[in-house]
Amino acid sequence: MWLFLFLVGQRIAELFIAHFNKKWMLKHGGVEVESSHYFLFIVLHTSFFFAVFFEWFLVRDGILWLSPLLVSLFLILQGLRVWCITSLGRKWNTKIIVIPDEPLIDYGPYKFVKHPNYIIVFFELLVIPLLFQAYVTAIIFPIMHLLVLMIRLPAEERALGGKF
C-alpha cells in the first residue's frame, strides 16, 4: 500500500509544482495555449490510479509480489522522470505554456529526445500496473496514453513552433 500511496502523493505534488510553475511562467510573459484537451490527461491519470487500485486491491486482495526487475525498471523511470522535471526547472508543466522568444531547453534528456517525459510516462503506465499485478491496466493505459498523445504532441509542436 505504501508504494501506491507514494505514487498518488507524487502525482499530487507534481500538480502543485505545475501550478506554481504556471504562475511563474505567466508572470514572466508565458501564454497558455491549446488547453482544450487537458481534461483528457486528468481523466487518463485519475482513472489509471483507480484501475490499478481496483485490479490490485479488489481483484488480487491487495497482495503485492515485488519483482526485482520491475522495481529496478520503476526506479530507473523515476530517475528519468526527475531528470526531465529538473532539466525544465520552472518551465516544467502539465499544461502547454510558452514564454515567447525563450529558447527551448536543449540539455538533460531534451538533448537526446524531443519529448522524453511522454516516453517515460508510457513505460510508467506499463510498469506500475505490472508492479501491482494489474495486467489489464498494463495493457489498456499505455494505449490510451498514445491516443491522447495523438492530440497533445501536435498541439505542443504548434506551440513550440510559435504557431498558437
From TrEMBL:
Membrane topology of the entry: Multi-pass membrane protein
Top-rank taxon, per record: Bacteria
Parts of the chain that traverse the membrane: 37-58, 63-83, 118-151
Chief localisation class: membrane
A Pfam match: ICMT
Presence of the UniProt keyword Methyltransferase in the record: yes
Subcellular location: Membrane
Protein keywords: Membrane, Methyltransferase, Transferase, Transmembrane, Transmembrane helix
Biological processes annotated in GO: methylation
Name of the protein in question: Isoprenylcysteine carboxyl methyltransferase family protein
